[in-house]
Protein: Signal recognition particle protein
Amino acid sequence: MVFAGLSERLQETFRKLRGKGRLTEADVNEALREVRMALLEADVNFKVVKDFIARIKEKAVGQELIESLNPAQHVVKVVHGELVALMGGSNSKINMAPKPPTVIMMVGLNGAGKTTTSAKLANYLRKQGRRPLLVAADVYRPAAVKQLQVLGEQLGIPVFADGTGKEPVSIGLAAAESAVTGGRDVVIIDTAGRQEVNEELMAELEAMKEAIRPHEVLLVVDAMTGQAAVGVAETFNSRLGLDGVILTKLDGDTRGGAALSVRAVTGKPIKFAGLGEKLDALEPFHPDRMAERILGMGDVLTLIEKAQENFNAEQMARMQKKIRSMEFTLEDFLEQLTQVKKLGPLEQILSMIPGLGGIKKLKDIQVDEKELVYVEAIIRSMTPEERRDPERVLNGSRKRRIAKGSGTSVQEVNRLLKQFEQTKKMMKQFVDMEKALKKSGKMP
Ligand code: GDP
Structure:
């Protein structure tokens, strides 16, 4: 997961602070030095780091700190606030045109993920009740047109492509017109990129913007490119006047610093984050939630939103009731595992749960997706009674029978039982947290 290294280092720094009780100015300075190193190592732009630390110093040192009841907590709070500000404050949405269609121009370098992200965005907006039209305007690469057509087909979203060798500008204009007649309210234009930033590309995109007058120009940036991403974003912004940025490949093993710098350097919000190759792996970027993830506070809101998107309400209510009353059985576990798989890679999901954020701890509860097949086989080899109350009923000979029936081993059966217990505990935590959120008014 992106930010894992940064997250670990910051959490370690704050753990040390917490252990100290009363803090002197020297303690805070030492902690800030560590924060600075952690940010630099995470590949955050050095100018950005310098300003960041200066602002924290201003707020974290002095009278308020000495007087606060829990000084370490005070420092964490200040760092959290600054991280949120650094990433752009509140979450910013796509500006929809007062009169449809809303035209979105997607720009970026080749390989950044522009085509994939165009399709993901169309998919996302459709889930929000919109009727998107995808437009293939990368006329230089026939493969790109084909790629968008394939993605559109997968999603069942129409793709406007004109194979007659027309200019991107005329394709864009024709597409906007076809959106009006076809009753489409959002037009997403996948423009041509280049290997690197050059004058030809900029002039071409400027001309397109001038002619089409899009409501949003979104730059797609590959987070894996690190500091180079900052330079790319700066150039695109100065020439085109961006409305926002979409960072892709945040699922990768990137240090993530680019994400923290792009917004600070361009002043333009990161609107979405790409978290995988699949077409549903796009999330609105919430700076506050991301800061909480980095500081190990978990990201329960995103998790709940994802769950609500993917589980139907009746199913959720039924499961919750079972969990609350501790009637949750292995059969439900199987159903749940299949459901949870829809939310995305398990490691990503678990990292959103507070306290589980430290990636190291995840190792023992990690469920390999391929293992689901075995899990299912094991549970299917049990009698209904065994599924309902495995702890009481299962003895050695029954376990051997189940292992044999499912083509697994007794160890694997035991491991599943352990996972089941842990999941039960985690789910209870989840339900409690949801209750607390409802109570505090953070959730309807
Ligand atoms: P384009 O040249 O900018 O249009 O880039 P593509 O859309 O063809 O994407 C380039 C590669 O990046 C493809 O293999 C995509 O599947 C991959 N990709 C795009 N977004 C993401 C993401 O968020 N995560 C991961 N892991 N891969 C991505």
